[in-house]
Design a protein that fits this description.
Blueprint lengths: L9 H26 L5 H17 L4 H21 L3 H19 L1 H4 L11 H20 L7 E2 L4 H5 L25 E2 L12 E8 L11 E2 L6 E3 L2 E5 L5 E5 L5 E5 L12 E2 L5 E4 L28 E6 L4 E6 L14 E3 L12 E2 L5 E2 L3 E4 L2 E2 L12 E5 L5 E5 L28 E3 L4 E5 L14 H6 L2 E6 L5 E6 L15 E7 L2 E9 L5 E5 L9 E5 L13 E5 L19 H13 L14 E3 L13 E3 L4 E4 L6 E7 L14 E3 L6 E7 L15 E6 L4 E7 L24 E3 L3 E4 L6 E6 L5 E6 L9 E4 L6 E7 L12 E7 L4
Parallel strand pairs: 2-37, 4-9
Antiparallel strand pairs: 1-36, 3-43, 5-6, 6-7, 7-8, 10-11, 11-12, 12-13, 14-17, 15-16, 16-18, 18-19, 20-21, 21-22, 22-23, 24-25, 25-26, 27-28, 29-32, 30-31, 31-35, 32-34, 33-34, 35-36, 37-38, 38-39, 39-40, 41-42, 42-43
Helix pairs in contact: 1-2, 1-9, 2-3, 3-4, 3-6, 4-6
Family: Belongs to the bacterial PQQ dehydrogenase family.
Cofactor: pyrroloquinoline quinone
Pfam families: PQQ
Amino acid sequence: MIENNEAQPLRIILTTWLVALLGVLLALGGAYLVWLGGSWYYLLAGLGLLLVGVLIHRRQRAALWLYALVLLASLAWTVYEVRFDWWQMAPRIDMWCVLGLWLLLPWINRHIAPGQTWRDGASVVLGIGLLLGAGMAGYSLTQDYHRLPGRFDEPRMAAAGVTPNSRSVSEWTAYGGSSRGERYAGAEQITSANVGRLKKAWEFHTGDLPGEGDPGEITNQVTPLKIGDNLFICTPHSIAIAVDADTGEERWRFDPAINRQAEYYQHMTCRGLAYHDAAAYAGPLIAARAGALPELPPQAPPRCTQRLFLPTNDSTLYALDLHDGKPCEDFGEGGMVDLKVGLGDDALGVYLPTSPPVVTEKLVIVGGSVTDNGSVDSPGGVIRAYDVRSGELVWNFDPGRPDATEPLPPGETYVRSTPNSWTIATADEALGLVYIPMGNQTPDQWGVQRSPEAERFTAALVALDLETGRVRWEFRTVHHDLWDRDLPSQPTLVDIEGPDGPVPAIIQPTKRGDLYVLDRRNGEPIVPVTEHPVPQGTVEGDFTAPTQPASALSYAPEEPLYERDMWGGTPFDQLICRIQFHRLRYEGDFTPPSEQGSLIYPGNVGVFNWPSVAVDPQRQILFGAPNYLAFVSRLVRREEVREARQGGSELGLQPNHGAPYMVSLEPFLSPLGLPCQAPPWGYVTAVDLRSMDKVWQRKNGTSRDSAPLGIPLTVGVPNLGGPLITASGLGFLSGTLDYYLRAYDMRTGEELWKDRLPAGGQATPISYVSEKTGKQYVVVMAGGHGSFGTRMGDSLVAWALEEEE
């Protein structure tokens, strides 16, 4: 019996309108994309889908033939653009396959051109298209275009143990594990064979959680210290805590009661404490200046011979007795030095010493963050060295007056608005040098007002003489930085095996992804560095450097972004991302910021950030976790906006007081909040430091804590937490967007074990062997990260091997 249009079922009417609406949206968006110079696919597919809707409405079987053609064309276009990359393929074909399956259902199919069987030629061709799509999807799951499947050979991995330059297996005495910043643990008890038996041993809660009225983003980035039988941490509100290393029981707590009401805090964080043991130094490594570095008295007082240095968010530095956490009265004023001195009246909440200082035999050396994009007139980025016992200022490196390193006289001020160092430095006392990774002069994206001295030290690794604070050498990684590519990572010291013997090297990771490998004696590159032409042209009055340096050992993206790299959950948000891509200025890496809006890739979070890299000095292996996320940087004329944020975030519209432009910084996201660029966004990787070759690289992390319904798909998510290597050939990492601590086989990068964290693990794990029980522990802070968007918490968690029965 033939049905007429008046008897058309509601499901067919709804299908007609849905197909037509989807077609109109695709066609309109596709037409705009073509007008912008983009792909014709969306316009043609939208018109085809609109015509399918018309044919369904007219009850013509040609609707199925045309839809089958659109589906097959979409599959062919998908393979042409992205081959068989699952994460690129899925948003291109998901809607077409679901809609095609709907049209094949008998209760829909038989009502399109009544009297026709649903097993006719059109249905068969459409079914073949769906089977082809399913086959492509299945095959794509077997392909991984983003993996580097190398491995380290067994003789290399057999080399183990603690090198002469590493500390005891029972200690973790500095932020990077040792004074060399290797993030390497000499412990060998936990191996690839038994790591599956790791179980949570204890969990300690600091009690320091985000509170109402906190003026900045709360981030838990602390790396614990392990000294004697205790662990030592600091919390986002600068509270120092000691806990038992075997049980997690609290031993003592020191709360400096910082000023939490400062209006412009950008971050509330503490990355760690620094440690000094007067008994650990057998003899002087640097010459004392007359009157500046007094010798220890013949009989040193029993208190504070072992001391911890605590930097606070309100710009002070405390020296605490290791054993009870009480301030060392002989340091500064009652155990504290005021770091705001010499920085001007506006230093509170703007100058933030968020990272642990560097401690040498006689000095504690401190830098600090200056709020990004706040004002052209900000506190200076001075680096200061204080006597480790008395707290007396010994020297200051002022980037605006680099040769005037004598202590600043009372009442005077350091040069304003100079490059600062917000991350962790490293010292080589044998060479008499401290290595300072420098940042930018604020504002980051507008450089008209920068002085020659600012240009010299912006985004530069600077080696200062430990005795005098004078510059011995510097190495610039960016010329006239307009991209916030300050040096974010602690540099690592390693003696690299060469044909003529070990070479004393320093490795500096960068936000762009370069790994600069330099001779730490003189700053000369060990791995070649070359200059490359970059895009030109910026706002009136500013300029761009004609070239930028690049290391031959680099994790910078091998290709720029293209329209085909745009992503989304469906063809529609992918289409919007393509439109956004063409509306932005983008000419590849180092595209200058603009009023139009510029796509910055890698973004200001960087390929590498403060987590740095880990190095196995015995096996000569480097372990890292590079990220790939694009950001949008837009310069906004001040007269166009009434007000901007005053602090508390590095994202959004930022004021740049005193500059003609404010700046808007946002991640490059689709309307669904997904990155507009296709995954993977995060990896784990390893480098052979003998050959300087990348050996393996794998996607890292799942979508469990960032996808709807918590679906745990291995997509490769961003990481903001530091890596750890152990002498047994394992790597550990906790900083991914999903809440796990993971263990990896350093031979291949294979994930061997993971365990759930109670909150985001944006910190660096450590490992040690207890002197009391002989157990090896792995410990990490799981406290979350405000700007990274992970769950907040206050848990310090330890794992050890489960006892065998």
